[in-house]
Amino acid sequence: MLSYENWQELASSRRSTRDFLDTPVEIEVIRSLLTDGLTAPSWSNTRPFMVGIVQGEQRDRISQKLVSKLRDSAELPNLGSNPDFTHEIPYPKPLSERSQRVGLGIYGALGIERGDSKARFGFMERNYEFFGAPTALFFFTHRGLDQFGTLDLGLFMENIMLGAEAKGLGTCPQGFLGNYPDVVKSEFEVDENYALVCGMSIGYASDHPINNWKAERLPIDDLLVSPSQSSKS
Ligand SMILES: Cc1cc2nc3c(=O)[nH]c(=O)nc-3n(C[C@H](O)[C@H](O)[C@H](O)COP(=O)(O)O)c2cc1C
User: Fold this and answer.
1) What CATH code is assigned to 18-210?
2) Distance (Å, rounded) from C-alpha 133 to C-alpha 136?
3) Is the bond preceding residue 90 a cis peptide, omega within 30 degrees?
4) In the chain, fewer beta carbons within 10 Å around the N or the C end?
5) How far is the CA of 108 from the centre of ligand 1 (A)?
6) Which amino acids bring their CB within 6 angstroms of ligand 1?
7) What confidence category does residue 62 fall into, taking pLDDT thresholds of 50, 70 and 90?
8) 232 Cα to the center of ligand 1, angstroms
9) By percentage, how much of the chain surpasses pLDDT 70?
């Protein structure tokens, strides 16, 4: 039986990988991670999501198309530029501060100066090169289940990432990969009712220093809501 300590070690050792070796990952390994992903709970057991796996020539073609879309963009894209989903940009406070800390941490680990927009653009391109990973996943959710579709997808994705960690594989979930849905959707037979949410790079981590950088873990007290005054009376 899996001990709590084993689970905690696995969960806490998972970190986003942002530089991969080109060592291929067998399709059977990816399929088994996705199958294990389905042990996650789901709203009415509907599994309101679909997945595209890209490897080889298709991976290279999509990557090239996404990089050229990025280069054609007048403005740097951000995680909110998917036309199917909108959210506030910049993020509302204090979320914007947390997000800025991650950005600063990543650019710092890559040695990119704050004002070096060319190098920052280069990092965005690396997102569309799947950080060198030989396999990428694209995730779609059914529009009809709104928040539950996205929630179920997140649970599925976390299972995949933990399974990958246990197999010695690195992953990076990427909102960036949802920024150009037309490019991605043209590569798959995907029902119109399904919207592209994001993607994930998956493969063996390289020894690049970016993979040693660790995003902060917030103390749980920052996320606990206090009891309302009325609940105390
Ligand atoms: C929905 C989602 C979208 C993300 N998008 C990106 C992305 O486009 N590029 C990237 O480098 N990291 C992306 N990340 C990774 C987060 O930056 C990372 O999970 C966070 O900083 C915590 O670090 P950790 O994953 O190493 O624990 C994303 C994570 C999630 C859950």
Assistant:
1) 3.40.109.10
2) 7
3) yes
4) N
5) 16
6) 15-16, 18, 102, 127, 172-176, 198, 215
7) very high
8) 38
9) 96
